[in-house]
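Pilot study result, target chain (281 residues):
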Amino acid sequence: MIIRVLGCSGAIAAGSRTTSFLLDHSILIDAGTGVGDLTLDELARIDHILISHSHLDHVLAIGLLADSVMRARVARKRPPIVVHALPQTLDALRQHIFNGVIWPDFTRLPTPEAPALRFEPLEVGEVLTLDGHRIEVLSAAHTVPAVGFAVDAGGDRGWWVYTGDTGPNPALWRRLASMKVAHLIIETAFSDDESQLANVSRHLCPSTLRQELQHLAGSVDVYVTHMKPGEVCAVMNGVSTFDTPHRIHALQAGQQIELGLSVADVLRQFKEPVVSRPNNL
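Predicted structure:
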């Protein structure tokens, strides 16, 4: 199982793309600006989009993707791309994006009988089986209804966990306590200098990230995501002070994470130095 990081920034700038992950070839997890780096053929292979919440940096590529691949999928008689999200998130997409004003309603185009997109509600705790992948919907604590996702790598290889946008979230750690977490993708949008803004907007900063990671057992590869452009150094400098058994990295667009590899193999996939290493590495 390969997770390709298409985007992992909290906003845009040169070299910064907003959140999106490609699971193998057919499943998107969030649909930020990073989706635009895929080729047309890669876009046309996507059958499922899992959306964590309704904020623009996580959903804006859905409509553009549908428009790009609609003709090719119709010609190949492919079914609609299924968008999986909370009912409240799907309602927000219908009302505020696919409303004929901001963007055409691709849940009815090119025809209502054979649209480019189909919306499918999900709920926290639900386990989906998509293209052979087992994916659990996790809770998140954000300013709008939100979720995270955990992907089962199979066997004893553990879970790839993505928190979505979230502030402190005790329910998440209660669920992860019974899972073998191999990789944790956790947001830290702001530096400690903006801790008040992080609190109001239900995001993490290094001080709250430290508190959250105290609930994570074992020694896990932790990847910090959703940092704002210009804030990466400040956030990672704050993270570098942690006394933790976990190995903490800054997530990077273009990085690939493959479950089933050794830790050393995973670390060789990107150049960002490890912030904290246990003695046995």
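One observation from the pilot: The chain is about 25% helix and 25% strand. A full batch analysis is planned for the follow-on phase.
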